[in-house]
Write a structure and sequence with these properties.
Elements (H helix, E strand, L loop, with lengths): L7 E6 L2 E6 L4 E7 L4 E4 L5 H12 L6 E4 L5 H4 L2 H6 L5 E4 H10 L12 H4 L13 E3 L5 E3 L4 E8 L6 E6 L2 E3 L17 H14 L5 E3 L8 H24 L9 H6 L3 H16 L1
Parallel strand pairs: 4-5, 5-6, 6-7, 11-12
Antiparallel strand pairs: 1-2, 2-3, 3-4, 8-9, 9-10, 10-11
Bound molecules: zinc ion.
Zinc ion binds next to loops.
Length: about 280
């Protein structure tokens, strides 16, 4: 029997909900049409997935399909639980599917405190399930019966395979937007991410509800601030990387303080920036 972790449920629009998983404050999305319902990201393992599934079944009994915004474990490790509940369609970008196939096993330790079964490969729901329905640039709409959702394939940014989902005024961005904590640069391309945030700003209107990968929903002004902050951090970061002796890049605490992301993510940010600069 799987120990379920109950999410917080919030309705954002007539057909759209977000379910906040408490562990990593990761947002799962739910979009309900007349024939199908789409679940956007499945949590960090069977415990969160079981809580999500129970909460979703209180909202809809329609057949479910799953969309993964990207390949990080806290967003996809609940996939196997959903498959065991009868879900057959798992959508993601080709790059995210490839990332999960090749790197997924390395991420199990990320969830060890929240999802020990997932971390230790125990039990029937701990398999890493790679999405098989690959979203392409040509296939931008998905019909849920009387309601269409739109895929936005923005290309590299937070990872090399980010996918956003829009339904009316609600936009699920995955970790391309982060609230309540710094953006995660572990697999990021800071330059591409800054470009993307610029495009995202132009996608949003004043009424758009932006559901970030983690934390509370935000608006266009927040996206704009995150965009400006990243542009400024890139300029600061480039100066730091250029001032370091070649081959011995090791930022000081003072250099990290200049950046807005806290010491850990700022160090990762500089590392990723230096790779992209070279
Ligand atoms: Zn992520």
């Amino acid at each position: 029997m799987t120990k379920a972790r109950k999410p917080l449920v919030e309705q954002l629009a007539p057909h759209c909900w977000r379910l906040l998983n408490h562990g990593f404050s990761m947002n799962t999305g739910l979009i309900v049409g007349a024939q199908h319902a789409a679940v956007i990201d499945t949590g960090s393992g069977p415990r969160e997935a079981a809580g999500l599934h129970t909460a979703i079944r209180k909202i809809t009994d329609l057949p479910l399909l799953v969309i993964n915004t990207h390949a990080h474990g806290d967003h996809v490790f609940g996939n196997s639980y959903f498959a065991a509940q009868g879900v057959e369609e798992f959508h993601a970008s080709a790059a995210a599917a490839e990332h999960l196939r090749s790197m997924g096993e390395n991420e199990r330790q990320l969830v060890r405190f929240l999802e020990p079964e997932m971390a230790m490969r125990q039990g029937e729901y701990s398999k890493i399930l790679v999405p098989q329905r690959l979203v392409t640039a040509d296939e931008t709409m998905l019909d849920l019966g009387g309601l269409e959702l739109q895929f936005l394939l923005p290309g590299p940014g937070h990872t090399d395979g980010d996918l956003m989902v829009r339904c009316g005024e609600v936009l699920f961005t995955g970790d391309l937007v982060e609230e309540g904590g710094p953006p995660n640069f572990e697999d990021a391309d800071p330059y591409a991410w800054a470009e993307l945030l610029g495009k995202l700003e132009s996608e949003c209107g004043q009424r758009t509800i932006v559901v970030p990968g983690h934390g509370n929903p935000v608006d266009i002004a927040f996206v704009s601030r995150q965009h400006r902050q990243l542009r400024a951090a890139i300029l600061e970061g480039e100066a730091i990387v250029r001032s370091s002796p070649a081959g011995s890049f090791d930022p000081t605490a003072h250099q990290l303080e200049v950046l807005p992301y806290g010491p850990e993510q700022s160090a990762i940010f500089l590392q990723r920036l230096s790779v992209k600069m070279s």
